[in-house]
TrEMBL record:
Pfam families: AAA, AAA_lid_3. It is found in: Mitochondrion outer membrane. It comes from Glarea lozoyensis (strain ATCC 74030 / MF5533). This is Putative ATPase family AAA domain-containing protein 1. Keywords: ATP-binding, Membrane, Mitochondrion, Mitochondrion outer membrane, Nucleotide-binding. SMART domains: AAA. InterPro entries: AAA+_ATPase, AAA_lid_3, ATPase_AAA_core, Mito_OM_Translocase_MSP1, P-loop_NTPase.
């Protein structure tokens, strides 16, 4: 997909398709690759096999069982901030597919019948953008269970029904649907049946936290007083997003310190700021005061995700000595690292 082709598609789009164009991202504009994400080999290979191969080699899915019964979608679930959206962007980048990002606000509509039209537009636009990764973020906002008729409006049920009809008819469509959610236990069972491959993206353990910090700080100059190993050890409940925020907060603390020094400057010559900032342990101490973990062990949603994982999760991810299908597991029982994880890896 090129910018010129996207411009041509924009001109041919119908009313409801135009509302979705803000979520279109072409491969050349995606900077995230699998190298920018700390994820185990098993997760990356599963994502590549399920999405990239069906988009890159459609001829392999044109005959046999894959022609009529290919896996229609993939569910990424886990605690918030663990990198589900980044993984979806990396899939689109690596496969060369256009990404169509959809949220509940894009399809839900207060007017009767409009929601179903928006759903039809998702699939018709995906066909025009082919090959395409349709990424539905916060999937629970669209696919929450229809079971409780007292609290669910008829429009919501019709919206899901329309999605399921379109979904079932997409076998000849060179697109792949990825759904991400922090609340997989709220998803409708009919939707889960269309997401037979479910990958848990868990909280990072200590060695993964150190690797994530290295990714975010690779272009920063670190003082000798900074130990990323110690920082990783001191952040047991932190998600990848939390660690990014810590890195940003440390850099901002350094800038504030430079500004304070400049404000106190009294010499005749104008103050000259350093060419590049140097982050010290003091800056990270300040960052840790400002940024706390967004997840705790006693969160009710974490307990619910664990129950969902035990019932619906990928069983292969919980075999003895295997890594979880999220951030890598560990064979050492570490209370601080494992406490808030969905899957706890037992020592061998």
């Amino acid at each position: 997909m090129t910018k010129e082709k996207l411009k041509a598609i924009r001109k041919s789009c119908k009313q409801h398709e135009k509302k979705l164009l803000s979520g279109v991202v072409i491969p050349s504009e995606i900077r995230t690759t699998f190298n920018d994400i700390r994820a185990p080999k098993e997760t990356v290979e599963a994502l590549k096999t399920l999405t990239s191969l069906s988009l890159i080699r459609p001829e392999a899915f044109s005959y046999g069982v894959l022609a009529t019964d290919k896996i229609p979608g993939l569910l990424l679930y886990g605690p918030p901030g663990t990198g589900k959206t980044l993984l979806a962007r990396a899939v689109a980048k690596e496969s060369g597919a256009t990404m169509l990002q959809i949220s509940g606000a894009d399809v839900n509509d207060m007017f009767v019948g409009e929601g179903e039209k928006n759903v039809k537009a998702v699939f018709s636009l995906a066909k025009k953008l082919s090959p395409c990764v349709v990424f539905i973020d916060e999937g629970d906002s669209i696919f929450s269970s229809r079971g409780d008729s007292k609290t669910r409006a008829a429009s919501h049920r019709e919206l899901i029904n329309q999605f399921l009809r379109e979904w079932d008819g997409m076998n000849d469509l060179s697109a792949f649907i990825m759904v991400a959610t922090n609340r997989p236990f709220d998803l409708d069972e009919a939707v889960l049946r269309r997401l037979p491959r479910r990958l848990l993206v868990d909280l990072p353990v200590e060695k993964d936290r150190e690797a994530i910090l290295k990714i975010h700080l690779k272009d920063e100059i670190l003082d000798q007083s900074v130990s990323l190993e110690k920082l990783a050890k001191d952040t047991p409940f932190y998600s990848g997003s939390d660690l990014k925020n810590v890195s940003v907060a440390a850099a901002m603390a350094c800038i504030r310190e430079e500004n304070e020094i400049a404000a106190k400057h009294t010499g005749e010559e104008p103050h000259v700021f350093p060419e590049k900032r140097i982050l010290t342990s003091k800056h990270f101490d300040k960052a840790m005061e400002e940024i706390s973990a967004s997840i705790s062990e006693d969160m009710s949603t974490l307990s619910a995700i664990r129950k969902f994982d035990e019932k619906y999760g990928d069983r292969k991810g919980r075999r003895k000595k295997a890594s979880a299908l999220g951030f890598g597991g560990t064979t050492v029982v570490e209370k601080d690292s494992e406490a808030a994880r969905v899957r706890k890896i037992e020592a061998s």
